Amino acid sequence: MEGYGRGRFVTAALMLVLMTTSLWTGSVVDAQNCGNIGASLAPCLGFLNGGPQPAYNSGCCSSVRSLDRSAQTSRAVRQNICRCLQSAAAILKPSPSAVNKLAAVCGARNRFSLNQNCNSLP
User: What is the CA radius of gyration of the chain?
Assistant: First the structure.
């Protein structure tokens, strides 16, 4: 039960960080998107913090592939996703190697780096 409570706390913290950070950009739409991104990637937090690799058919990977499909729609969407992920990572400090592996493990095309310039995404 203690692990479950901690997981819910981390999920809530992730959503708060993403929503607050995107509000600094001045866009309510971005805030909603960052909140949705945080909520959808919550199942991945265990892996991103050093836990076991998620299965391809897990909720984590399903969310990663869904985010990947969204990223393919436009440059603005890719840039927003990039900023949201970087903002969350700055606070939550996930394992860099896990972040780098997540897209490949889940079969996603887009690879977001935590140190890339989001404005330079094509």
Answer: 14
